[in-house]
Automatic annotation (TrEMBL):
<feature type="signal peptide">
    <location>
        <begin position="1"/>
        <end position="18"/>
    </location>
</feature>
<dbReference type="InterPro" id="IPR029058">
    <property type="entry name" value="AB_hydrolase_fold"/>
</dbReference>
<keyword id="KW-0378">Hydrolase</keyword>
<dbReference type="InterPro" id="IPR002925">
    <property type="entry name" value="Dienelactn_hydro"/>
</dbReference>
<dbReference type="Pfam" id="PF01738">
    <property type="entry name" value="DLH"/>
</dbReference>
<dbReference type="InterPro" id="IPR050261">
    <property type="entry name" value="FrsA_esterase"/>
</dbReference>
<keyword id="KW-0732">Signal</keyword>
<feature type="domain" description="Dienelactone hydrolase">
    <location>
        <begin position="38"/>
        <end position="258"/>
    </location>
</feature>
<protein>
    <submittedName>
        <fullName>Dienelactone hydrolase</fullName>
    </submittedName>
</protein>
<dbReference type="GO" id="GO:0016787">
    <property type="term" value="F:hydrolase activity"/>
</dbReference>
Amino acid sequence: MRTLLLALLLACSGLAQAAIHTQEIPYTAADGTRLIGYHAWDDALAGPRPGVIVVHEWWGLNDYAKRRARDLAALGYSALAIDMYGDGKNTQHPADAQAFMQAATADAGAARARFNAGLDLLKAQPQTDPARVAAIGYCFGGKVVLDMARQSVPLAAVVSFHGALATTTPATPGSVKARVLVEHGAADSFVSPQQVADFKSEMDKAGADYRFVALPGAKHGFSNPDADAHKGHGLDIGYQKAADEQSWADMQALLKEVF
């Protein structure tokens, strides 16, 4: 009885916690590809709030990308995990993931169109302030958000978690309008020291406002607790709790600054 009375008092005082709401939303890219977005928001907040795009790892739009959208919603953002492969497909096999990723990045224009379709979808949601939008990405998604920054897509900030740094569309002076944060595993064997040096040189020459964080001992996939499950495929990846928590805190600090 006391529990019921307490719940009623909290509800009447407006202190009851609202659940995070989620919705799958189909949408279409300019090339006709059918995509599926996963939108998350907290309805305890009134009115529009900043929006954050989440771009999945090379595995596709899986539960991890969706969980990160819910995490962002809990922080007070309108978050959309977008679909870069089509039909929300995902896999747990590296060969399939590689094929999906290569197909999605074969045409830089098509990749940008798919990202922009998701961006437009997030901006159209009533919970989103379309003037305040950022993007984060993991692994393949990290490369995607960095490329969008290089191509002057209107974003307040982009954050790459263990993302690829090499690109076929390098930044040019003045092209990077977004604040850039790279959270990189210092023990990531997928990214060479030369690629790190080249990225920093590229950003310096472009005059970008960027921060590069090398997380000690962290391997590729350091933010995803499921990374350890994929070691059986011979992948040099692994979860690191300290790196996960530090990189998430760094992201939160940047989003507070830009919004």
